[in-house]
């Protein structure tokens, strides 16, 4: 078997890259360890930058997002018992969209099926080989049989725990990491959102976020201890704790109901440099992780896929290596700005075990500044709606 680009991983990065390459007429093949249902079942991101929606439009997969997604023009920051709105559209002229990662993934899978492109799900022992030479290949096992795919390039879109980054020589990678001393406990419920925009709350008991998937379905997060287990968080405990971390009006408006999903995610900032090893490129969470406070993970996966598809288009169309040579530096320049923004939002909004009362007062001063200064609001908004790519 042979293809131009072998893509490892059918998450948002791999599926979007596949469609962007297809639009340029570049043949590609995806290998995914899990089943389609498993991939679709992961409740993760909910917020898309305008640029990400634009990429879905470019590949003809944006119709349902425009019909069902919720366009948001601002967010609210809650602290010291009050909520303050940041008018992002007023500050930048841009908006963001609430549209779940599960829906994005489904739209991308449907586009891939409609284009007749190959995806092998439940591929075991996927392994990239010989990407330091001119004839890379990928092997995997399916139904007990080992398969080989020859290719020009390998795209490692297999997430933080994937095989691609792990296959690059350790001496060629520099890793940067911060693990935060807390996690996010998230629940999904068939209840209307508290407010029509997202509420990010800084509270002495810990951070809380009220977000949504639709006007009938809410997604809420609470900062929790890394030792916590979902079994310790019955629904009524979750709702009680959320109410305590919100301002009075939001707490009064909160409609509770049974959770449909409940999970705990650790928070981490991580970057692997470079994002290219010979004929293998890393894309999305395979190369970098950000804490979800800035809503950047999926959006970075999308901008990486954009940079990489443009670079490969230049390679095939213009017979020029300039694009692929510049990919890592170009992608990392945007990644580091999102890493900085996500770290900053996380630092401003969470309760840190080791910064004491002075840390808490500095956070309040910063939140006061960010919600009073037009310059600060514009800076937050510019990053939140997504820096250009
Ligand atoms: P994914 O989604 O992890 O997909 C990688 C795919 O690769 C497969 N795979 C392999 N396949 C073959 N062989 C192997 N050896 C393989 N190893 C792994 C996996 O099965 C999987 O299908 O990475 P990708 O595509 O880079 O996408 C990244 C995003 O999923 C991630 O950044 C976001 O979910 C982060 N995130 C958010 N991002 C946003 O932009 N906005 C948000 O509002 C937002 N909220 C969130 C989030 C992540 C969260 N959690 C749980 C980490 C909220 C949360 C709670
Ligand atoms: C979500 O809707 O799941 C979401 C939104 C914004 C964030 C994180 C998660 O910052």
Task: List the topology elements.
Elements: E1 2-8, H1 12-23, E2 28-31, H2 36-41, E3 47-49, H3 50-58, H4 63-68, E4 70-72, E5 74-79, E6 82-87, H5 88-92, E7 96-98, H6 101-114, E8 118-120, E9 124-129, E10 137-142, E11 145-156, H7 163-167, E12 174-189, E13 199-201, E14 208-212, E15 218-224, H8 235-244, H9 248-253, E16 259-273, E17 276-277, E18 280-282, E19 288-289, H10 297-318, H11 322-349, H12 356-372, H13 374-385
Parallel strand pairs: 1-2, 1-11, 2-8, 5-13, 11-18
Antiparallel strand pairs: 3-7, 4-7, 5-6, 9-10, 10-11, 12-15, 12-16, 13-14, 14-15, 16-19, 17-18
Helix pairs in contact: 1-6, 1-10, 10-11, 12-13
This protein binds 8-demethyl-8-dimethylamino-flavin-adenine-dinucleotide and P-hydroxybenzoic acid.
Describe the structure.
Strands 1, 2, 8, 9, 10, 11, 17 and 18 form an eight-stranded mixed β-sheet that branches. An eight-stranded mixed β-sheet has the order 6-5-13-14-15-12-16-19, with helices on both faces. Strands 3-7-4 form a three-stranded antiparallel β-sheet. The longest helix is centred in the last third of the chain and has 28 residues. The mean pLDDT is 97. It has a domain of 195 residues: 3-Layer(bba) Sandwich (FAD/NAD(P)-binding domain). With 389 residues, it is α+β, with helices and mostly antiparallel strands. The chain is 39% helix and 29% strand. The protein is globular and about 60 Å long. The protein has 13 helices and 19 strands. Strand 17 and strand 18 form a beta hairpin. The structure holds 8-demethyl-8-dimethylamino-flavin-adenine-dinucleotide (RFL) and P-hydroxybenzoic acid. The site of 8-demethyl-8-dimethylamino-flavin-adenine-dinucleotide has 36 residues, from helix 1, strand 12 and helix 10. Pfam families: FAD_binding_3. Its EC number is 1.14.13.2. This is 4-hydroxybenzoate 3-monooxygenase.
């Amino acid at each position: 078997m042979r293809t131009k680009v072998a893509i490892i991983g059918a998450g948002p990065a791999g599926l979007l890259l596949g469609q962007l390459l297809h639009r340029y007429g570049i043949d590609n093949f995806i290998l995914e360890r899990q089943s389609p249902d498993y991939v679709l079942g992961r409740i993760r991101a909910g917020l898309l930058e305008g640029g990400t929606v634009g990429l879905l439009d470019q590949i003809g997969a944006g119709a349902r997002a425009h019909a069902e997604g919720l366009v948001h023009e601002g967010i609210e920051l809650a602290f010291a018992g009050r909520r303050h709105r940041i008018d992002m559209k007023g500050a930048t002229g841009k908006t963001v969209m609430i549209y779940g990662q599960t829906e994005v993934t489904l739209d991308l899978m449907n586009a891939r099926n409609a284009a007749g492109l190959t995806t092998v799900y439940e591929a075991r022992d996927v392994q990239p080989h010989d990407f330091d030479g001119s004839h890379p290949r990928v092997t995997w096992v399916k139904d007990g049989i080992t398969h080989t795919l020859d290719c020009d390039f390998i795209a490692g879109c297999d997430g933080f725990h994937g095989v691609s980054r792990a296959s690059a020589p350790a001496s060629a990678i520099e890793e940067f990491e911060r693990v935060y001393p807390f996690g996010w406990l998230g629940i999904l419920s068939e209840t209307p959102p508290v407010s029509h925009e997202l509420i990010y709350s800084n509270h002495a008991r810990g951070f809380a976020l009220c977000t949504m998937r639709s006007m009938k379905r809410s997604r809420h997060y609470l900062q929790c201890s890394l030792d916590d287990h979902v079994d310790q968080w019955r629904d009524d405990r979750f709702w009680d704790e959320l109410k305590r971390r919100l301002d009075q009006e939001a707490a009064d408006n909160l409609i509770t109901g049974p959770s449909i999903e409940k999970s705990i995610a650790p928070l981490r900032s991580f970057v692997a440099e470079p994002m290219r090893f010979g004929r293998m490129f890393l894309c999305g969470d395979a190369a970098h992780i950000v804490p979800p406070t800035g809503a950047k993970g999926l959006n970075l996966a999308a901008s990486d896929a954009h940079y990489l598809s443009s670079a490969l288009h230049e390679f095939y169309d213009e017979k020029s290596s300039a694009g692929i040579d510049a990919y890592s530096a170009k992608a990392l320049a945007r990644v580091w700005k999102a890493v900085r923004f996500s770290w900053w939002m996380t630092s401003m909004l969470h309760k840190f075990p080791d910064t004491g009362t002075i840390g808490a007062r500095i956070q309040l001063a910063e939140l006061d500044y960010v919600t009073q200064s037009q310059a600060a609001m514009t800076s937050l908004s510019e990053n939140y709606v997504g820096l250009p790519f």
